Amino acid sequence: MKKIIASLLALTIVTNPTSGYAVENGVSAEGDPRIVSLYKGSENLGLVSIQFPMCSAYLISDRIVATAQHCTIDPERAAPRDVSELFIGFPGEKSNATKGRHVAVAAVFRAADYKRYDYRTDLSYRNDVAVLVLAKPIPNVSKARLLNEKEFTAYATTDPEVWIGGYGYQNVSERSISPDKRFVIPAKAPARFANVSDYKAAISFWKSKWNRVNYQESLVGVTMPIATGTICDGDSGAGFWSKDGSQTIYLGVMNGPLVSTNCEGRSPEAPIAYNGFHPTYQYQSLFDSAENYVKKNPVKSTITCKKGKLTKKVTTLNPKCPAGYKKI
């Protein structure tokens, strides 16, 4: 406990989650098959006008996306955005409002009892989770695995390597670039499940230091070595995931840091950042609602099949390659 408090005291940081967070000093996640950007836009006469990327998100399947709830809410009206304003970029592509590929959002399922962060009383948002359904599928996306509470608890004890990836600020200089001109590739960074007692000590420390009373205790803590990347302002909704062989395990939506350099160009003495996320098993009803929507509102999808030098595209509700062809 004394070592934790000493490290926290030594660290000059920003712990204000009024903006979202992504990855500072991480490694490139360009081409990642699941990290996506959430855009604000509009569609008129079949023409899509994208204004700017707002947040990050994570593909659970070819039509289901998880992100932060506050990314789907208009801050000026303090009311949910209409689905017509929300678009998802293609995974792992450079965020570019004029040339990037985008898919419209058809439905949004938001967690109940959401509470926006209040800097006077809070250290975190509450139930800041939303699950989106896309109007059409993004090709070649397999379904990620979601863990129930028992599976999650057991998996955490194996100390797996965890990753987070997003489109937020990745260095100090990006703060001077306006959102509509800041087009970047996604970045990712490694993390580990935090020791529960250490994580609780960090929560208590920052509640006292910043005179805050509210922090969602059900958040799961992770540690991130600052030298290899940690979260930063400019992107909410980034997802934490892990791998079990070739299978992707989606763990939950990132909430915000207790300790972070926050892209301020500072050199902290403490080597580890504490961050938290909303585990998926606490919001399974949202994912179930999204799955039910997809089943009730099927759309055709296209796959590409290859046989020798021949290629063929197949577009149906449930496309399969013809005999002798393989999906590519």
What descriptive keywords fit this protein?
six-stranded antiparallel β-barrel; alpha+beta; six-stranded antiparallel barrel; 13% helix; 328 residues
Question: What percentage of the residues does DSSP assign to strands (E)?
Answer: 25-35%
Q: How many DSSP helices? A: 4
Poorly predicted regions: 4-21
**Mean pLDDT over the residues:** 85
Describe this structure in words.
There is one protein chain. With 328 residues, this protein is of the alpha+beta class. It has 4 helices and 18 strands. The chain has helices spanning 2-10, 149-156, 196-209, 284-296, and strands spanning 27-28, 35-44, 47-59, 64-67, 73-74, 79-80, 86-89, 102-110, 130-134, 162-166, 187-193, 220-225, 239-244, 247-257, 272-279, 301-307, 310-316, 326-327. Strands 10-11-12-15-14-13 form a 6-stranded antiparallel beta barrel. Strands 2-3-4-9-8-7 form a 6-stranded antiparallel beta barrel. Strands 17-16-18 form a 3-stranded antiparallel sheet, with no helix packed on it. Strand 5 (73-74) and strand 6 form a beta hairpin. The longest helix is centred in the middle third of the chain and has 14 residues, at 196-209. 41% of the residues are buried.
